[in-house]
């Protein structure tokens, strides 16, 4: 992307997201040479009673996303593309898994407060590696109308 000028605010958000992903990777890989787990571009749709959360997950070793918790929701669930609840989402080694609208995603139900644009939402992902080790990964997601990547692409195509 040589020659492309980036606005400072989106760059700051990307840096913050990268730092969070790096911190998540350190937490996941801190004991006995465990794998590296990254969370990129986390975001949550605005909502009053329920909403959805999206992000891109990557694990250096085979793992599964078993669940999620959030203090803003009475219940959080993993959903598949057909909106059915799923017990876990596989995270194949070295491959990115996108949680996105219309695909696999996290639903946050019975919100304790309305989520407005630019609010921050704390999520805790429960991930299990192939050898049965469970980790809790903290995620800080921004409430937005679309993904940070889509917004950035739109900004550069104006």
Overview of this structure, please?
Strands 1, 2, 3, 4, 5, 6, 7, 8 and 9 form a 9-stranded mixed β-sheet that branches. The longest helix has 21 residues, at 8-28. The chain has helices at 8-28, 148-156, and strands at 37-44, 50-59, 63-69, 73-79, 89-91, 96-99, 105-111, 120-129, 134-143. The protein is built from 2 helices and 9 strands; from the N terminus they run αβββββββββα. By secondary structure, it is α+β, with helices and mostly antiparallel strands. The chain is 19% helix and 42% strand. The model is unreliable at 1-12 and 14-32 (pLDDT under 50).
Computed over alpha carbons, the radius of gyration is: 16 Å
Q: How much of the residues is beta strand, in percent?
A: 35-45%
Architecture (CATH level 2) name? Sandwich
Main sheet properties? 9 strands, mixed
Uncertain parts:
1-12, 14-32
CATH superfamily: PCu(A)C copper chaperone
Number of helices: 2
CATH class: Mainly Beta
Computed structural class: alpha+beta
Q: Classify the helix fraction into a percent range.
A: 10-25%
CATH topology: Immunoglobulin-like
Q: What gap, in angstroms, lies between the N and C termini? A: 16 Å
The rough form would be described as globular
Number of strands: 9
Order of helices and strands: HEEEEEEEEEH
Total domains? 1
User: What is the overall pLDDT average?
Assistant: 84
